[in-house]
Specification:
Number of domains: 2
Largest sheet: 7 strands, mixed
GO molecular function, one term: aldehyde dehydrogenase (NAD+) activity
Strand content: 15-25%
Pfam family, one: Aldedh
Protein name: aldehyde dehydrogenase (NAD(+))
CATH superfamily of the largest domain: Aldehyde Dehydrogenase, Chain A, domain 1
Number of strands: 22
EC number: 1.2.1.3
Family: Belongs to the aldehyde dehydrogenase family.
Oligomer: single chain
Helix content: 25-40%
């Protein structure tokens, strides 16, 4: 029986203006949830509610807020298998990956529960006597958070956990096609004792969300915007926030390169390319885009890569598979468009292309009638190709070759994204030269482009984001604002840069 889901604002269910049907992409005839969609007015109202609730939540001592975060972690841990199975059911993510995604919420909570006791400011020396200087971290107010559905619970936790810990209220708009997973996560968070209105969940389509966000920014009820999604939409969100002099935390798409040096361990590189290119059916922002392989090992790598992919299990995400279906019909439609970018100079080295059907089979496939597509390796990619320059959200990986490391770095940076990157080498000099030259916010050496740990900064540059970072202590700068205070107890007005005592040196002194 499918779930009935609506927005929750201030602890109360909100009226819906429309309906969205969330389907199981592995069995598209199976309804997971019927989702009541809110309009722009409801989104704006949620931000007003959050603003009112935030005042009291900010007065709760930060260590106590940290204990709430600890409770969230324990609740998620206790419900991990159920939440992971819901993620698998709703977006087709293989269960092992879904369980790892849920574990990431727990890891994030485990990290931040202690930050409630470490929201440190500083005592700063003054240039004048009888005067003290201090700095404090203050909550920003209300954060409006909009997240994608490829990581329907882990990525939202990167926003929600630190935002709540720092004393902010949140209005969260998850992806409609992952509504059931989001609603379950919301229930776990509120069960930890969050006061009504501190965390609100609003289900809405893109247009309603954008219009509602514009209303809220105009009313002054949103003080931070968090967005995870495409670079195209991220630009619009960033522009909207900027017009209202508010900052946005943008985590956008990627065209993530993997460089294979001639001294690389090829079997290890293949393992990394397989996971980062085709895990989650290539639908991660950190998924491998292009393998840039040295010309001396090109043929050996491609042969191994194609063989490994053809042996990999694709099918029912409840089983032990590399990849399941695409997330939703709209992503399947978009992926089919990417396949039209194949050119005569390209060579598909992985077999069949397109949707897996009886007429277009894949050996060992056990997925049934879902949104399943053949994973594709395309050799012969050139720097001017759309397949080289643009993000392809789905199970397709390009391969090109290079002669020198400088050339490889130039190729890796050429698309203009800057999220994740990888190099396979046994030479430390190559690893550090690559790190120095690559524009990506994240670099892996002898590891895949995917797989962030919860206590490292996560984020990208260029088309991949605006330089903001999530995870670890670095995200605290997204959800707090620094306040400085000076306290003069001299009993007189001391003017900075004017009433400063100076000790005169004898700069003409020379040793005899």
């Amino acid at each position: 029986m499918s779930r009935q889901i609506v927005s929750v604002v201030g602890g109360k269910e909100a009226a819906a203006a429309g309906t969205y049907t969330s389907l199981n992409p592995a069995r598209t005839g199976e309804v997971v949830a019927r989702v009541g969609l809110a309009d722009a007015g409801t989104f704006a109202a949620a931000c007003r509610t959050a603003k009112e609730a935030q005042r009291e939540w900010a007065r709760v001592p930060a260590p106590v807020r940290g204990r709430v975060i600890a409770s969230i972690g324990r609740l998620v841990e206790a419900n991990a298998e159920r939440l992971a199975r819901l993620v698998t059911e709703e977006i087709g993510k293989p269960y092992a990956e879904a369980l790892g995604e849920v574990r990431e919420i727990v890891d994030t909570c485990d990290f931040f529960l202690g930050e409630g006791r470490r929201l440190y400011g500083q005592t700063v020396p003054s240039e004048m006597p009888d005067k003290n200087l201090f700095t404090f971290r203050n909550p920003i107010g209300v954060a409006a958070v909009v997240t994608a559905g490829n990581f329907p619970v882990a990525v939202p936790s990167w926003y929600l956990v630190p935002a709540l810990l720092c004393g902010n209220a949140v209005v969260w708009k998850p992806a409609e096609y992952a509504a059931a997973s989001a609603e379950a996560m919301f229930r776990l968070f509120t069960a930890a004792g969050l006061p009504d209105g501190v965390l609100n969940i609003v289900f809405a389509d893109g247009a309603g969300t954008f219009d509602g966000l514009e209303l809220a920014l105009g009313e002054g009820t949103v003080h931070k915007v968090g967005f995870t999604g495409s670079s195209e939409v991220g630009r619009k969100v960033g522009e909207l926030a900027g017009r209202h002099l508010q900052s946005a935390c943008l985590e956008l798409g990627g065209k993530n390169p993997m460089v294979i040096m001639p001294d690389a361990e090829l079997d290890l590189a293949v393992e990394g390319a397989l996971f980062s290119g085709f895990g989650t059916a290539g639908q991660r922002c950190t998924s491998l885009g292009t393998v840039i392989v040295h010309e001396s090992v090109h043929d050996g790598f491609v042969e191994r890569f194609a063989r490994a992919l053809n042996a990999a299990a694709i099918g029912d995400p409840a089983g032990d598979v590399l990849a399941g279906p695409l997330l939703d019909q709209k992503f399947a439609d978009r992926y089919e468009e990417y396949l039209t970018w194949l050119q005569p100079h390209h060579q598909v080295v992985s077999g069949n292309v397109g949707r897996i059907t009886k007429d277009n089979p894949r050996g060992g496939f056990d997925g049934g009638e879902g949104l399943y597509y053949h994973p594709v390796i395309v050799d012969g990619i050139q720097p001017g190709d759309r397949l080289f320059l643009e993000e392809t959200f789905g199970p397709i990986v390009g391969v090109t070759s290079f002669a020198t490391l400088d050339e490889a770095i130039e190729l890796a940076n050429l698309p203009g994204y800057g999220l994740s990157s990888s190099i396979y080498t046994t030479n430390a000099k190559h690893a550090f030269r690559f790190r120095e030259g690559i524009s990506a916010g994240m670099v892996s050496v002898n590891n895949s482009t995917s797989g962030a740990e919860a206590h490292l900064p996560f984020g990208g540059n260029g088309k991949s984001g605006n330089g903001s970072r999530q995870s670890g202590m670095w995200v605290l700068d997204q959800f707090t604002r620094w306040q400085s205070m000076n306290w003069d107890h001299s009993g007189k007005l001391q003017k900075a840069q004017m009433d400063v005592a100076e000790i005169e040196p004898d700069l003409d002194f020379r040793l005899p």
